[in-house]
Amino acid sequence: MTEIDTLPGIENAVSIARDQHPISRKHIAPNALKVLYRLSEHGFAAFLVGGGVRDLLLGKQPKDFDIATDATPEDIRDLFKNARIIGRRFRIVHIRFGREIIEVTTFRAHHEARNAIPEHVSRRQIKGLDSAHSEAGMILRDNVYGDIDEDAARRDFTVNALYYTTQGFRVLDFCGGMEDLQARQIRIIGDAQERYREDPVRMLRAIRFSAKLDFDIAADTAAPIAELAELLESISPARLFDETIKLMTCGYAERAFHLLGESGLGNYLFAPTLEALKHGSAEAGKLVELALRNTDTRLSQDKSVTPAFLFAALLWPVLQLRLAQANDDQQAPQQIFHQAASDVLLEQLNFTAIPKRFTIGAREIWDMQRRLERRNRRNVFSVFNHPRFRAGYDFLLLREEAGEDLNGLGDWWTQFQNGDTNQKNDMVNALATTGSRRRRRKRKKSAGKQS
């Protein structure tokens, strides 16, 4: 067993004894403990690190447990038959226990600051950079193995750079993370400008952790964001989609969306939506707010959420504004709708590369709104049996909750799906009768005009 007090770099840590922190092994996943102990028994130093330590210190139960060690990926693979080395830029190890994955990384040293986007580079030049970032918006220079204090220094925020060891059950703090945790603030490690230029996505991560933890962003960490927000243009739409999903499914999407707008970063993820919210209807804006709130509620209840529904809601104000501005007497309403939907989704793809399965899903949810509104004997059952009925119905209820007057449409569909076969048939027959009366009134009115 390696004595961690002899580990290179350990002298730079503040050691917090067991009686000075709340972390207990009973709150750590058994498989994570198994990995920690096996690495230690074979002469390696191993630490629980990152969000798992942070959340345990805050009294929360982490969903994931990550481990940092001085063992190489090959060493780890030799110890665990269920281990798999992944990654090219920097290799990490996934140790699988059924559905649970414990991620293990070897201590890293910080890459050189020359990989940052230089201050003199203009906004127009950002996309042409190839020395610092790849087309995917990642830092090109590989990280290298290092000591534990170097590993701590290369992490993003101080509250994510706390290490827990089973040797003495201590917490090690290299960057002032405990102080920031107690002050409930997100602070970047190192110079904020330099760290954002190394990887502009760190600005989005600051927003996400601020929203998720309900922490303030420290003044020195927040200050450069407005100036450097445009660096997000150097990040590929595919990576921005991944970050968007993390923001919208962190459990605090409503707060995160507000922070994105407040910081200016939202213009690089949801520019069409933010613009539409300024000029569109109050109901469309309220729908976005409710959709994000409902997403947070579902996640708090361990229910699933789908990106298709999220993007259908986030882009609804854009679609509604586009339809309101449409002025084409040569096209049928259905053609106008489909063209507007295509244009809205295509515009959003310039910001986030939404996978096709989600754009198709969003379009179907929008299309279901028209079909749900167009009740008649012929289409009610086909709509009810459509795979997207439930998502379309939920979206319809959201529209009504946001203030749209749909003449009790949501209540009608609620009664219809809860009714038995006879009740469903009676409701459809009632529609047919109502439709016949409406047509007779139209014919009489038309005949009166002709006479």
What does this structure look like?
The chain has helices spanning 30-41, 51-57, 73-79, 148-153, 177-183, 192-198, 201-213, 219-222, 225-228, 237-248, 253-263, 271-279, 282-300, 307-314, 316-325, 333-348, 356-373, 380-384, 389-401, 409-418, 421-450, and strands at 14-16, 46-49, 66-69, 83-86, 92-97, 100-106, 108-109, 144-145, 162-165, 170-173, 185-186, 216-217. It has 451 residues and is α+β, with helices and mostly antiparallel strands. The strands form three sheets. The chain has an eight-stranded mixed beta sheet with strand order 1-10-9-2-3-6-5-4. Strands 7-8 form a two-stranded antiparallel sheet. A two-stranded parallel sheet has the order 11-12. α15 crosses α16 (333-348) and α17 (356-373) packs across α19 (389-401). The longest helix is centred in the C-terminal third of the chain and has 30 residues, at 421-450. The chain is elongated. The N and C termini lie far apart (102 Å). Mean pLDDT is 89; it is low at 113-141.
Helix content: 40-55%
How would a crystallographer describe the biggest sheet? 8 strands, mixed
Question: Main sheet: which strands, in order across?
Answer: 1-10-9-2-3-6-5-4
The averaged pLDDT comes out at 89
Form type: elongated
Tally of strands: 12
User: What structural class results from the helix and strand content?
Assistant: alpha+beta
Low-confidence stretches: 113-141
How far is the first residue's CA from the last residue's CA?
102 Å
Q: What is the C-alpha radius of gyration, as a whole number of Å?
A: 27 Å
Can you count the helices?
21
Tell me the fraction of residues in β-strands, as a range: 5-15%
